[in-house]
Design a protein that fits this description.
188 residues, mainly alpha, 2 domains
């Protein structure tokens, strides 16, 4: 009979301190994940960073187990992620400007106003300078948009009592239009 010291399983490798080859985090693996994400839709650099770091931590946990998370490992993942994103930006594959342009157009056609779109872009990590370039709240297109959204929801007839006017204003405010835009449309 042959004596065995270990079964050669990944659990034995983790217990012995050796890194399992399949689940280690590498810049190449992070880049592949980033390309998979970008193939589905545009991402901001901040969104991509958050998703890649979560992916890296998940891969790290597969390698070492959840208890092995250290500050050094997290720093390594963050550093690799930053390098991968910088490389993708240099190649033109990640662009906050391109994302913002497409996102503003998409949300505007869905009936959302500039304030709501601006808040959503801020959540996604888009710089204020880029936002202001694509979201000109004084543009007449927003007045046309707020009028279309109001007519689609409430019909052509303007509200004649205060209660209905307030209801429509709340709806338009929720959609992200400014008070001036709403007032102008409701005043006729």
């Amino acid at each position: 009979m042959k004596a065995t010291q270990g079964s050669g399983s990944p659990q034995d490798e983790v217990a012995s301190g050796a890194r399992p080859a399949a689940a280690t985090v590498s810049a190449q693996g992070l880049r592949k994940k980033a390309m998979d994400l970008l193939a589905r839709r545009e991402h901001t650099a901040a969104e991509l960073r958050r998703k890649l770091q979560a992916y890296g931590r998940k891969q790290q946990d597969k390698s070492y187990g959840a208890e092995a998370e250290t500050d050094t490992a997290a720093d390594d993942i963050a550093e690799m992620t930053a390098r991968v994103i910088a490389s993708l930006q240099a190649e033109g594959l990640v662009s906050d400007e391109r994302f913002t342009e497409a996102y503003v157009r998409y949300r505007m056609t869905r009936g959302y106003g500039p304030q709501r779109i601006q808040a959503e872009l801020r959540e996604r990590g888009v710089d204020d300078k880029i936002q202001s370039h694509y979201l000109d709240t004084g543009d007449s297109q927003w007045l046309e948009q707020v009028a279309q959204v109001r007519c689609k929801r409430f019909g052509e007839v303007l509200p004649d009592d205060y209660k209905e006017r307030a209801r429509q204003a709340r709806f338009l405010q929720y959609r992200g239009f400014t008070a001036d835009q709403i007032r102008e449309v409701l005043d006729g």
